Amino acid sequence: MLDQWLIGIILVAMLVLFVIDKWRYDLVAMMALLSAAILGLVPTAEVFSGFGNAAVITVAAVLIISQALWRSGVVDALASAMKNIGDKRWLQMIALTSVTTICSAFISNTGTMAIMIPVALQLARSSGNNPSKVLMPMAFGSLLGGTITMVGTPPNIIIADIRREAMGESFGIFEFTPVGLSIAIAGLLFMWLLSHWLVPEKAGKSKSQSLYDVSSYLTELYVPEGSNFVGETLYELENRSEEDFVIVALQRGEKRWSAPARYLRLKPEDVLIVEANAETIQQVIDGTGLELNAEEEIDERFLKSDDITVIEGIVGHDSRLIGRSAGDIKLRSRYGINVLGVAREGQKLGTKLANIRFKPGDVLLLQGDAEVLNDVFQRFGCFPLAQRSLRLGSPKQLIQPLGIFSAAILAAALGFISVPVAFSLAAGLMVITNILPLRELYDAIDWPIIVLLGATIPLGSALERSGAADTIANAVLYVSQGSPDFVAVGLLLIVTMLLSNIVNNAAAAVLMAPIGISMASSFGASMDPFLMAVAIGAAVPFLTPIGHQSNILVMGPGGYNFSDYWRLGLPLSLLVSAVALVMILLVWPLY
């Protein structure tokens, strides 16, 4: 009984820290594992056994394959076809959500959304529609798509491996399809018909432009003869103001530098194009003797040149920018990048940009060298929103990765080799054939997820070994006492779904699966419907933006608030739960 209390305290503390989100979830999970090991709840020989678990290897392989397919342009080929679907919002909704759902069945949700969000924004802006109406349904569609196959989402991979350990045989790649495809179709139909009334249309934001009206903040400053700042550097001038004051261009005669280097020294008759509000401009003029120059209308052409561009990007869920500011990482001095704007929940933040500590879902407007910007996005875990050239490969380049991926699926589905071996082999072939360059191999793996899984799998075993899983299962059975047996399956599904909205869905699957197995044992029933309920519940967190990376990615571009998600997410969750329960019991009978 003491072991049950100890593992319960550790797991509750872990979940609370997940919700508080002060430390990243992989660190929290590792600390929980080490605490359990110190208390003797996890045997010494099994402390790090999770990192060699087949599910962890499979997740890593699937992430590598997803990156290779994403890089080769497979999803881009589908996205490029979206340009011809017309201006009708309902038609755009159907096309965008369908493609997102289908791709997410085989490729990582995050990778799919990274490609489809810019496509959706481009369509919305060209047609005058509000992107907020379609971005949330796209994110939910990516979650629904992940339920269709075993490789669509980490919870399915985890549940398949747990079944292998418990029964000696894993779920097959397409054994999730009858249930997953049913809820995907039901969910899509529901969103096509009703999301117009359930998804808020964000006001105060242009439907045809980005989150920022940069030109309204651009001003020309003229450097007169005899100015005290002649011969001084741009760095010294920028430091004269404590407020937002960014030099975005320098005009000297016929020559113009966009995003000029901070070491450039001012000369007489230079014209500076700066981004700042009127109050800051007046402060700079008063303190430097520079003059306001308004001989021509200023627009965003000053922000760009042959090498310099302006691009919007979303701060990802595991970005290295989270909790840090542009000043902390020296974006301006180290990378030559200007932060022109930061938007959070659809509203531009007006405080000093260099000091804003970034959060997941923030939308950044950055100016700098195009190649450097691309490297910075990859280095810091951000996703570009700009219209960019699609990575469309030649037919040979598209056929090769699709052929390798299809062969892996076929070999695993027919039972020639196991799923972990098939997908590890496919990942290796993607690298050997240079579809995914070797230098990008380890960048393709979401390491926090790998650490989370490696740490929580032994904790899940400890939950079962201590008897705590049986105790929780008996409590659930007591609540459902007197009801038909399928009610217990429904309760398990709903509890797992609620848990996945506040913690990582992979962790939810690991922790709830032992409880599902104990419930099945208490009933004397098959464990398959209980495991399938956990898989579905963990994969579809629709109620909060923190439930999944896809939800976070659309938060900034859609201008959503935290409370906006449940308006569509709650009825969709109820529908998915009902359809999933019926299909689970039809495909996987209790007895």
Quick structural gist:
The chain is α+β, with helices and mostly antiparallel strands.
Overview of the molecule:
- By secondary structure, this protein is α+β, with helices and mostly antiparallel strands.
- The protein folds into three domains: 2-205 and 420-587, no CATH class; 214-303, Alpha-Beta Plaits (2-Layer Sandwich), CATH 3.30.70; 309-384, Alpha-Beta Plaits (2-Layer Sandwich).
- The protein is 55% helix and 8% strand.
- The chain has helices spanning 2-20, 25-38, 54-72, 74-80, 89-104, 109-127, 132-146, 154-167, 177-198, 234-238, 278-288, 326-329, 331-335, 370-380, 395-413, 419-432, 447-465, 468-479, 485-500, 505-523, 528-539, 549-558, 565-587; strands at residues 218-222, 246-252, 255-258, 271-275, 291-292, 308-315, 338-344, 347-348, 363-369, 382-384.
- The strands form two sheets. The protein has a five-stranded antiparallel β-sheet, with no helix packed on it.
- Mean pLDDT is 84; it is low at 204-209.
List keywords for this structure.
591 residues, alpha+beta, Alpha-Beta Plaits, 3 domains, five-stranded antiparallel sheet, 10 strands, elongated
